């Protein structure tokens, strides 16, 4: 009897290092009357597991209802904290297909699509898919155990409600999947510290900003539509002050140059000093 060993293979995975991107898969009950029932194994690819599940669901007789549960982040060792699921599984007659490590994780939507392709759309009318709360990888052990127990309670509640609707037998599939990537773990581009962030931002602005400013110039600057001589003050007091100072400086320069140019020595005085008489006078002295 395989049912008393419901989690034997799944719990064995907790003693070894789990493969990256590998998630457990559980399907039950498996009728032993089938000629080639799917076999449990420790490791398999998602394609192989999905193919086995599609083949069995397509050939299963007397089981028109199938419940497929997916829980992102579920690992094989989490089953030891799900007592309600284990008791429920032990009460089901038949075998089971369990794969502790499915590389890539089996996708329930692929299984449903495969059954519909093989048996037609009317076959999948009794198949219902559910997704439980994700188990994040960065959870602490206590938090993860708490979330697993909550998932166990939620799964038991759903199955109890589904069983209350009808007494028909059903097939249960419970599988893990890759959790959605967390936004805080995304690699952000490195930005250097800039001494002039405003200038850098202006340089990176789109050229359309210029057109927007041009169209709103009349609102931002009321003088943009005025004539040139009204918009700008050409004859300002500073201009007159500059001209006045320039004239004074030119006048001072003119007086100085004129004074230097007026220093002349007469020819008579020069010839008297430099002539023969002046030279003899100098020798006598």
UniProtKB/TrEMBL annotation:
Membrane topology type: Single-pass type I membrane protein
Organism expressing this protein natively: Elasticomyces elasticus
Keywords associated with the record: Cell wall biogenesis/degradation, Endoplasmic reticulum, Membrane, Signal, Transmembrane, Transmembrane helix
GO cellular component: endoplasmic reticulum membrane
Name of the protein in its database record: Protein BIG1
Domain V-type proton ATPase subunit S1/VOA1 transmembrane: 233-272
Location of the protein in the cell: Endoplasmic reticulum membrane
Residue stretches spanning the membrane: 238-263
């Amino acid at each position: 009897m395989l049912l008393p060993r419901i989690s034997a293979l799944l719990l064995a995975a907790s003693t070894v290092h789990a493969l990256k991107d590998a998630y457990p898969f559980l399907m039950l009950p498996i009728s032993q009357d089938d000629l080639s029932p799917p076999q449990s194994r420790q490791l398999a690819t998602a394609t192989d597991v999905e193919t086995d599940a599609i083949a069995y669901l397509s050939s299963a007789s007397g089981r028109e209802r199938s419940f497929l549960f997916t829980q992102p982040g579920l690992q094989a060792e989490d089953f030891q904290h799900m007592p309600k699921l284990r008791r429920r599984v032990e009460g089901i007659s038949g075998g089971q297909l369990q794969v502790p490590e499915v590389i890539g994780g089996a996708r329930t939507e692929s299984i449903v699509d495969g059954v519909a392709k093989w048996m037609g759309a009317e076959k999948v009318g009794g198949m219902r898919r559910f997704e439980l709360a994700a188990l994040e990888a960065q959870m602490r052990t206590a938090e993860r155990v708490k979330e697993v127990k909550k998932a166990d309670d939620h799964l038991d509640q759903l199955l109890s409600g589904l069983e209350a609707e009808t007494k028909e037998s059903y097939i249960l599939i419970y599988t893990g999947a890759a959790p959605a990537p967390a936004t805080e773990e995304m690699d952000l581009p490195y930005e250097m510290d800039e001494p002039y962030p405003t200038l850098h931002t202006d340089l990176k602005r789109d050229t359309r900003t210029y057109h927007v400013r041009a169209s709103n110039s009349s609102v931002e600057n009321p003088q943009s539509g005025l004539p040139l001589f009204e918009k700008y003050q050409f004859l300002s007091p500073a201009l007159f002050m500059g001209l006045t100072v320039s004239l004074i400086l030119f006048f001072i320069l003119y007086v100085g140059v004129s004074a230097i140019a007026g220093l002349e020595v007469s020819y008579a005085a020069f010839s008297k000093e430099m002539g023969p008489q002046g030279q003899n006078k100098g020798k006598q002295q």
